[in-house]
Amino acid sequence: MQFLNLKSHAMNNKQTNRAHRFKFGKALLILTLLCLVLVAHAEDGHELWLRDKKANPVIVKCDAKAPAVLLACSEIKNGWTGKAGETIRIILKADPMLKGDGYKLTPSTIQSATPIGVLYGAYEFLRRQKTDQELTVISNPSYERRILDHWDNLNGTIERGYAGKSIFWRNEKDSVTVTEADRKLWTEYARANASIGINGSVLNNVNASPQILTPAYIKKAKEIANVLRPYGIKTYLSVNFASPIKLGNLKTADPLNGEVIAWWKNKIAEIYREIPDFGGFLVKANSEGQAGPQDYHRTHADGANMFADALKPYGGIVMWRAFVYNANEKDRAKQAYTEFMPFDGKFRNNVIIQVKNGPVDFQPREPFSALFGAMKKTPVMPEFQITKEYLGENIHLVFLSTMWEEVLKSDTYQQGKGSTVAKCTDGSIYRQSITAIAGVSNIGLDTNWCGSDFDQANWFAFGRLAWNNNLSSAQIADEWLKLTFANSSPAGSVACDNGQWTNLFLIPVKKMMLESREAVVNYEMPLGLHHLFSAFGHYGPGPWYAPKNVRMDWTPPYYHKADANGIGFDRTSNGSDAVSQYHQPLAEQFNDPKTCPETFLLWFHHLPWTYQLKNGRTLWDALCSHYQDGVVTVREFQKQWDNIRPYIDRERFEAVQSKLRKQCHDAQVYKDACLLYFHQSSKLPFPPDVERPIYELSYLENINPLTMESIQAMFNRSNRNNASPQTTN
Ligand code: GCW
Q1: Which among 159, 354, 724, 727 is the best mutation to test ligand 1's pocket, defined by most ligand atoms within 8 Å of the CB?
Q2: Which stretches of 42-143 are DSSP H helices?
Q3: Other Cβ atoms closer than 10 A to 158
Q4: Ligand 1 near 494 CB (within 6 A)
Q5: DSSP 3-state assignment of 127?
Q6: Is the pLDDT of residue 606 over 70?
Q7: Exposure winner among 105, 275, 435, 612, fewest CB in 10 A?
Q8: What is the tens place of the pLDDT at every residue in 473-521?
Q9: pTM
Q10: pLDDT of residue 27
């Protein structure tokens, strides 16, 4: 018994141990599973606005078998959030109301004349379903070509990129190999683009390396094109004008030289053998040190037409950039117009002139470029910058949609009132042989694609506006927030469909997004000031920067012209006369400080510090107030963001919170740097309601806390493997 007892005791012990081990093992398993679930759910932002969760069953009826239609069917099945068991019919059929890849939706049908239009319709249907919008709609694209320009260098760096390295190119040795991981990422990229209607990608930097046209790189471009094609995305390349010399060993790149023409024709034939639906070339010529036709005393038209003729048989186009400015020009803002207007009508019909939204360079605020609404016989396309080179890189929370909306809605008066930039570029005013719009991409290898969660909204907004240039930024922000953040509260504790989420998350965060661009204008360069950036890179302030050996138009004093008499660039008829590049009544309005919109006051006028503004304040006081408002607004953003904590996952909450801290710090640096520097000229006291600086000017000038970042950016830039002989400002 004893023995038995012992035995049974031992057995009991064993059993208990086993039971304990089992329990422990089970707990460990549960813990591991929990960790896995948590890891799996750790929010990294990679899914963008495409969060296909909890799809309900749906019956999709469709006869067509085109790849884009099949994609549409699977998107609907994977993303259906309507009632379970409903039926939706896909109709591939023309309709007089539909234009290009436009689509018509009803609650039970998606119709388009083209397979890719069906896919766009499917994405729009799902977007509307998830964001509670009307399901009956007809939508046609504003522009035929809606393109992302990647400033990606072949060594993998990205000019003005703040989201890691290139998704297309790696280092020199390895740049042309393609892995399964590459294909997967490019597919995700293509899908995200298609979901917002983007249908073109320029794969490499406009400061183009000639190497892009070597057989190995063309082969790689073909691999990329093969992945993008099913999603309706055409591939384009930036080319270096001097390629016939650098690659073809010719003595010249003169666009009228027979050998040069033959070289390009052969090269283009080679590209089309690999990529039969290749879109065409983007060209930066005679700009910031890049070669161009003017090197051979030829014109922009000669250069562009040479490419156009060679591309024409294949249906390719040339996007010729108008971003030109010379060191000796008295007013850089005038040059694009001066150089291009004489050639209106002289370009082939497969050339389109790509014009940055403002006359200088993607500043926080510029009036629209006078080239919009000027050219009547040559198509013009807007170029926006999605990457925030001048607006706080990937750190500051700035929703760019409001800036683009402002530009698109600006009235050029080309054909009287209502001739907005949108209408002058989308073919509504003049029939254009091509309509297009481009955005300089903010995409890199960062897991969240854009370097910050809110920068994804700018990619989204560009696509949405390129599709429909009438959309309001409020609607775009609303859609993006719902698609990106709904149901993301920790452990799903707050459902997105209740009023609480709308009132406490959606409304305040949308407000913040809509105010964010004005905030950055205020704390960086209000009232029409521009280009006050630090020496290297375009992040921090440097209104003082003007070393003797640097060309004047790369230094801030060239733009602000602050002195004892006042501040601002005189572009009136008494000054550089840039105003005369605009149609009446704008030219007259801009010319007079009393009628010039205050947002552009110092863009067009040099005014005394004591000049009285409409609200009765002096220019100096108003300037101080604007800087103050900018800082106060971003401080408010911090508080607003803290309030929304219960409604969003910890990862994105903390990431944004931390960026907002840096933004507030940097806004303060901007305000102090600019006001203390301008104070040396104005000699006026700070108004009583404006907070005093907290930094010394000498400290900001010499130990600019942002400089380290800028120097880093400069190093990254100088690593690029292109042939640009100059360092740009
Ligand atoms: O804004 C300037 C940038 C350059 C850029 C250039 C351009 C690609 O600082 O980095 O070069 O514009 O648009 O060509």
Answers
A1: 159
A2: 67-79, 115-130
A3: 27
A4: no
A5: helix
A6: yes
A7: 612
A8: 999 999 999 999 988 777 555 555 568 999 999 999 999 999 999 999 9
A9: 0.92
A10: 55
